[in-house]
Every structure is written in structure tokens, then in C-alpha cells.
């Protein structure tokens, strides 16, 4: 609005159902591109050019909160929580890149890809995993029912945060080189990553990516460095996409992508169990009037 406060309106004009997202925001009002009808942050129609204004006309809205550089939208029936989690990096890290990418992949498949490190030396051979050796054994150590843990032998800790965030911290010997056989906390230098995988439509995901370092803080001031980070992120994502798109195609044909899980699939399997539990209990809530969801991580 005019004071800079965010709002979320239904993307459908109350007049002829034209998507408001095709229009503009003028003086804090969403303006329909079809006939110029305008709506305030409460969804109330405030202007109807060329005709008499009807005071009762409005579009529906959703609760919105702005916190730590993110906008949270609540499509459910519950009230937004009083306290929101923070996904800012630790104070000794400097943010070097914040990117927005959209991919033709269902968001759950994208999250499972991000929670899987074992594919790196086979998939990312031209980017960050170039030259990585293939260990005899890769495992993900995690506490019972947890959605967080650390990789072995890679010095990487990783976790899933509901509803759609993955966070990883990578220990580095020097930029781009892992210190194999160590925990990330034992390393002197770290790369911290946040991926927010938001559903952007059927079979589409919008990724909000934040990359931080606890060393070489001066790098962010190099002219053109944002273009470098963007190019690297796009290249890494491209290596994943051709494979995950293939998974998605097979899944739509009825394939079970978790038919033979092994030790290093633990985090992805637990994410999928968590999601199925939430979906199952959400359906039960709407069918049977129940409000309680299953505990996270339980199938």
C-alpha cells in the first residue's frame, strides 16, 4: 500500500475475473488492466471508472506477515503464529547472493533433490563437484525422526525446515574445495545456503536462493560479481533439471521414485514421509473437521 505494507489479494477482479496480476499497483492499489477497477490492501474496491462505485464490492485476501526479508502468506484456516522463525544466516556470515529462479519441477521433487548430496559427483561434474572423488560409502547421520543431520564423509550439515526450506552449511578447505572426513563445524571456512522452494503452480517451483560466506567478505564488492553468482547458480540448476524433469515424467506415468531407498536417501525419505503425513491429515481435517496435524517427520 502507500505506506509500504504488504498484502495478498485474490488474483481475480470482482468485475469480470481478469487476473489482477496482469495489471499494476497505483498509489498502493491493485489496478485491474481490463476496466481499471482498483482494490486496497483489505480487498475493498475503491474505484470503478466510468460507472458508479459500489461500496460492497471486494476481493478476498489472505493474512500476510513480513519478517527478515521474507513475505509469509497464510492460505490455511489457522491464524498466523505470533512468532515467526528466522532464516537469516549466523551473524558472522555475509550475504553474497540472493536470487529468484523458476523451474518446471514440482516443489517436492526439487526439495528432495536439494536434500540429496550423493548425486553430486555424478551430476555436477562441470560445476561445484568437478574433481570430487567418489567415496566407498556415503551416509547421512540423523537423530531419530529428525529432519536434520550431517553427511559423511562430506563436511556438510543439512536440514529441512517446514514448509519448504532447505538449509545447508558446507565446510571448505579453501573456496570450492571440501575438507573430506571432517564435520562442517571443524572447518574454518563455510558456505551457508538457503533454498526456499515455493509452489508456483502445477509442476512449477519458484526458488528463492540465498548464499552466504563467513570469509572473503570483500568479494561482494567486486563489480559484476552478482552476474557471476547468477551464472553459477543457473549452471548448477541446469545439471539437476534434466535429471529431475525425467524423474517427474516417470512419476506422472506411475513410477515410484522411492522404490529402493538406500542409506544416503534417509533425509529425502523422511521429508517425503513428513509431507505425506501432512497431506493425509490435512485432507482428514477438511473431511472430518479435525484441526490437528501429525507430528513432523512421522508417516
Automatic annotation (TrEMBL):
SUPFAM superfamilies: Bet v1-like, ISP domain. Residues 1-73 form the Rieske domain. One of its GO terms (molecular function) is chlorophyllide a oxygenase activity. It holds the Pfam family Rieske. The keyword Chloroplast applies. Keywords: 2Fe-2S, Chloroplast, Iron, Iron-sulfur, Metal-binding, Oxidoreductase, Plastid, Transit peptide. Gene3D superfamilies: Naphthalene 1,2-dioxygenase Alpha Subunit, Chain A, domain 1, Rieske [2Fe-2S] iron-sulphur domain. It is found in: Plastid, Chloroplast. GO terms for cellular component: chloroplast. The keyword Oxidoreductase applies. PANTHER family: CHLOROPHYLLIDE A OXYGENASE, CHLOROPLASTIC, IRON-SULFUR DOMAIN CONTAINING PROTEIN. This is Chlorophyllide a oxygenase. It comes from Mesostigma viride.
Amino acid at each position: 500500500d502507500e505506506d509500504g505494507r504488504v498484502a495478498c489479494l485474490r488474483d481475480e477482479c470482482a468485475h469480470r475475473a481478469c487476473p489482477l496480476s496482469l495489471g499494476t499497483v497505483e498509489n498502493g492499489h491493485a489496478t485491474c488492466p481490463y476496466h481499471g477497477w482498483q482494490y486496497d490492501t483489505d480487498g475493498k474496491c475503491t474505484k470503478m471508472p466510468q460507472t458508479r462505485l459500489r461500496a460492497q464490492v471486494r476481493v478476498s485476501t489472505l493474512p500476510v506477515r513480513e519478517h527478515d526479508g521474507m513475505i509469509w502468506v497464510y492460505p490455511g484456516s489457522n491464524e498466523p503464529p505470533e512468532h515467526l522463525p528466522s532464516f537469516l544466516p549466523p551473524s558472522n556470515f555475509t550475504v553474497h547472493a540472493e536470487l529468484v529462479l523458476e523451474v518446471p519441477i514440482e516443489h517436492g521433487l526439487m526439495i528432495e533433490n536439494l536434500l540429496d548430496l550423493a548425486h553430486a559427483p555424478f551430476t555436477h561434474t562441470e560445476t561445484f563437484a568437478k574433481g570430487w572423488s567418489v567415496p566407498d560409502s556415503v551416509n547421512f547421520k540423523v537423530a531419530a525422526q529428525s529432519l536434520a543431520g550431517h553427511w559423511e564423509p562430506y563436511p556438510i550439515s543439512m536440514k529441512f525446515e517446514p514448509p519448504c526450506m532447505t538449509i545447508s552449511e558446507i565446510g571448505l578447505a579453501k573456496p570450492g574445495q571440501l575438507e573430506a572426513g571432517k564435520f562442517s563445524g571443524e572447518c574454518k571456512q563455510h558456505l551457508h545456503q538457503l533454498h526456499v522452494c515455493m509452489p508456483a503452480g502445477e509442476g512449477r517451483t519458484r526458488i528463492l536462493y540465498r548464499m552466504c560466506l563467513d570469509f572473503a567478505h570483500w568479494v561482494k564488492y567486486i563489480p559484476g560479481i552478482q552476474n557471476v553468482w547468477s551464472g553459477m547458480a543457473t549452471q548448477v540448476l541446469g545439471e539437476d533439471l534434466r535429471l529431475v524433469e525425467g524423474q517427474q515424467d516417470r512419476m506422472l506415468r506411475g513410477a515410484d521414485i522411492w522404490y529402493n531407498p538406500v542409506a544416503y536417501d534417509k533425509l529425502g525419505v523422511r521429508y517425503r514421509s513428513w509431507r505425506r503425513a501432512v497431506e493425509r491429515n490435512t485432507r482428514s481435517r477438511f473431511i472430518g473437521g479435525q484441526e490437528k496435524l501429525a507430528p513432523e517427520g512421522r508417516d
